[in-house]
Give the backbone structure.
Amino acid sequence: MAGKRNFPNLETTLLDWPWVLVRLRCHYCDKSRDARLAFLARKFGDLTTIGEIISIWRTPCAFSPEGENRKPQKYSVTGKCGAYAIDMEGGPPPNLPPKVGGLRIVADNSVRMPPRRKAG
């Protein structure tokens, strides 16, 4: 299909990540991080998957299954860490400001620009 974008998934490597930023968030706490792709590729290698990056990022979380700080949760509402990469869900790419949409044509000529002042 023309115009349909394939969004990345957990198996996408840093080499194939389509944007300059990797934005990480958590569903349950206010933890968030924006990391540059070049930094992550240099630190972890360009064949590291986004799933592995998320797993590394959530390690210190108290709800992370991999974390050494994991607290036993008998009656937990969440029960697990909610870490995810926000750009896998779709939406505008993080490289562009949100209002970038191109130029638009104004049909009404009643709006006039103020006269230019002469330098001097």
Observations:
- The helical segments are 37-44, 50-57.
